Amino acid sequence: MIHLTPAALKAIGRFVKATETPVAGLRIFVSGGGCAGLQYGLRLEQDKADDDLALDVGAAAPLLVDPLSHSLLDGLSVDFVDSLTRTGFQFNNPNVAGACACGQSFTA
Question: Does pLDDT of 103 surpass 70?
Answer without folding.
Answer: no
